[in-house]
Amino acid sequence: MTDIQLYSQISSLPSDLKKQVSDFVSSLKKKSKASKKLKERQFGYAKDFFKMAADFDEPLEDFKDYM
Known about the structure:
It comes from Pedobacter riviphilus. By secondary structure, the chain is mainly α. About 45% of the residues lie in helices and about 0% in strands.
């Protein structure tokens, strides 16, 4: 259904039904906004996802000329 078709159907409704449509649209917007809330990240979710080398803090061989 296109926006124009929807608009023409809503505009043909009596006033009391237009109010109900308006309330329904408001509740849909509220429901949509509530479902978009970001969930907190779980602590430790990336545990064991990557490993650091044992010599991570050691100087790189590429920079030995500059030291």
